[in-house]
Specification:
Pfam families: Cons_hypoth95, Mg-por_mtran_C. With 233 residues, the chain is α/β, with parallel strands linked by helices. The chain contains 8 helices and 7 strands; from the N terminus they run H-H-H-E-H-E-H-E-E-H-E-H-H-E-E. Strands 3-2-1-4-5-7-6 form a 7-stranded mixed beta sheet, sandwiched between helices. Helix 6 packs across helix 8. It is globular and about 45 Å long.
Length: 233
């Protein structure tokens, strides 16, 4: 059950991605020229997406994949090209519409169905694999754990997600970011140590049988994110 803090943060993210920064994200997720700072973010996101895709099986025929927080759908399309039935969910109607337009006729042997909604909604059904790229980085660790527990109950094989790794550099960067006028800020991310996430997952009875396997960090200028793979055994 989503908490009040999760619901509040989700509302803030919807406002940001669907209104405040929709045009910026449309440009960032395309091949249009961007500033030097945004170019590092684009490169970092491309590298992280490639890493997450490398952790999925090359043949996904007959498998259901949830792209949680799909944005404009780049990862969803690549998974569908491997034959997956992909459910792509995001809270931003603007980004979902853009993803639908970009994906048309480009998903190969699989399929992609785009939805505006909550990535944790059980109505989306069960999955073989769940991928959440940079969709949980804005939430408190307890809310991240609840999200993972909810998804794990409907997932057969693996959950791949990213988090903002806690480091001295990132904490300093966030401190500087607080000096930016409030109206120009993007939603704050919540750094967390990998050891903390592993402890929370390992100590949650709802995630019994799930184990962290691989981890990978991408640092590209103004983009820093770390992926963690959870596998059911």
């Amino acid at each position: 059950m989503p908490t009040a803090s999760y619901a509040t943060r989700r509302g803030e993210l919807e406002t940001y991605f669907d209104r405040t920064a929709a045009k910026a994200w449309e440009r960032l997720t395309s091949d249009a020229p961007v500033s030097g700072i945004r170019a590092t973010v684009r490169a970092g996101r491309d590298a992280m997406r490639a890493n997450l895709l490398s952790w999925l099986p090359p043949d996904l025929r007959g498998k259901r994949v949830l792209d949680a927080g799909c944005g404009t759908g780049a990862l969803a399309v690549e998974a569908a090209r491997r034959g997956a039935e992909v459910v792509a969910v995001d809270i931003s109607p603007t980004l979902v519409a853009l993803g639908q337009n970009r994906a048309e006729g480009s998903h190969g042997a699989g399929s992609v169905s785009f939805h505006v909604g909550d990535m944790l909604d059980p109505a989306f059904g069960r999955f073989d694999h769940v991928v959440g790229m940079d969709c949980l980085i804005h939430y408190k660790p307890d809310d991240v754990l609840r999200a993972l527990a909810g998804l794990s109950a409907r997932t057969k094989r693996s959950i791949l997600f990213t988090f903002a790794p806690r480091s001295a550099f990132l904490m300093a960067f966030l401190t500087v970011g607080r000096l930016v006028p409030r109206g120009d800020r993007s939603p704050a991310i919540v750094p967390v140590a990998e050891a903390t996430l592993r402890r929370l997952v390992g100590g949650n009875p709802a995630m019994m049988g799930w184990h962290p396997v691989r981890t990978h960090r991408v640092a590209s200028g103004f983009y820093t994110s770390q992926a963690l793979e959870l596998v059911r055994r």
